């Protein structure tokens, strides 16, 4: 297998139009990404088989001669279920079918360059976040206000007590609530740095709560963790589309703390020891 050069991330583009392959490769290079191109579905799958997890993102067209994009996507989900995929297509009516198979974004042609740039950057950054170990500056420790929103009382109590008492090398101030409306209200005084949000809740689902925060209804946290037990494909896709780190219930405390520490470093939520 040919070794890939060091880069900010590796993007595989699968499209039968040479000008599209050239255009996206030209876009990705100044962003620091290594770009591999495939002119058809079978060629793309062979590249995925060869390089595997070294590919950070697949940009996939749907309409191609021979093996179409949907067939490629189904194969990726079968053999590489965690691989990040952005679908770029002129067929907007295929969105629901693609989302049911689990994609990171659906971009309809014609698209704005800024949209494509932002989606590539978001997905590759997320994968890099998951893969890299947390690196805390010497003499400092993560410190953040955490807002937990979950309609299950036991989940709230367990997470809150664990984060307050059982975490080494970090300091977390924690507030819990069991509804979206109360979360918005409490946030204006508590001013959380990070939200841990369940998706499936009565009255207001977690994705709606995040959108309300983003539109100025309450104090907007710097980042979110989606903490959920949903398994139905449509509901899983709702969580994925938010673009934040997803943890599945139950998650080990060490895993949650590792994610929180990474978010603290990312947003410079640190205090001197």
Q: What does this molecule look like?
A:
The protein is α/β, with parallel strands linked by helices. It folds into 2 domains: 9-131, 3-Layer(aba) Sandwich (Rossmann fold); 140-272, Response regulator (Rossmann fold, 3-Layer(aba) Sandwich), CATH 3.40.50.2300. The protein is built from 10 helices and 11 strands. The protein has helices at residues 18-28, 41-51, 69-79, 95-100, 113-131, 153-165, 180-190, 206-214, 233-241, 253-266, and strands at residues 9-14, 33-38, 57-60, 85-89, 105-108, 140-149, 171-177, 194-197, 223-228, 245-248, 270-272. Strands 6, 7, 8, 9, 10 and 11 form a 6-stranded mixed beta sheet that branches. Strands 2-1-3-4-5 form a 5-stranded parallel beta sheet, with helices on both faces. The longest helix has 19 residues, at 113-131. The mean pLDDT is 87.
Short synopsis of the structure:
By secondary structure, this protein is of the alpha/beta class. It has two domains: 9-131, Response regulator (Rossmann fold), CATH 3.40.50; 140-272, 3-Layer(aba) Sandwich (Rossmann fold). The protein is built from ten helices and eleven strands.
């Amino acid at each position: 297998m040919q070794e890939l050069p060091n880069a900010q991330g590796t993007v595989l583009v699968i499209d039968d139009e040479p000008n599209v392959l050239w255009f996206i490769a030209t876009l990705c290079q100044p962003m620091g990404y290594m770009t591999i191109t495939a002119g058809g579905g079978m060629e793309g799958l062979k590249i995925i088989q060869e390089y595997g997890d070294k590919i950070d993102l697949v940009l996939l067209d749907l309409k191609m001669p021979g093996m179409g994009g949907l067939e490629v996507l189904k194969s990726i989900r079968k053999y590489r279920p965690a691989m990040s995929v952005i679908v770029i297509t002129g067929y907007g009516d295929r969105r629901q079918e693609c989302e049911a198979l689990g994609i990171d974004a659906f971009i309809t042609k014609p698209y704005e360059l800024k949209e494509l740039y932002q989606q590539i950057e978001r997905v590759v950054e997320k994968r890099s976040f998951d893969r890299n170990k947390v690196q805390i500056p010497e003499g400092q420790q993560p410190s953040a206000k955490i807002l937990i929103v979950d309609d299950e009382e036991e989940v709230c109590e367990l997470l809150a007590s664990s984060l307050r008492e059982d975490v080494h090398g970090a300091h977390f101030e924690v507030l819990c609530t069991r509804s979206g409306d109360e979360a918005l209200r409490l946030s204006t005084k508590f001013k959380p740095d990070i939200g841990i949000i369940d998706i499936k809740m009565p009255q207001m689902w977690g994705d709606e709560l995040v959108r309300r925060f983003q539109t100025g209804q309450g104090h907007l946290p710097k980042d979110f963790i989606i903490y959920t037990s949903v398994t139905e494909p449509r509901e899983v896709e709702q969580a994925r589309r938010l673009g934040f780190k997803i943890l599945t219930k139950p998650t080990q405390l060490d895993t949650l703390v590792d994610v929180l520490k990474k978010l603290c470093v990312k947003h410079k939520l640190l205090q001197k020891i």
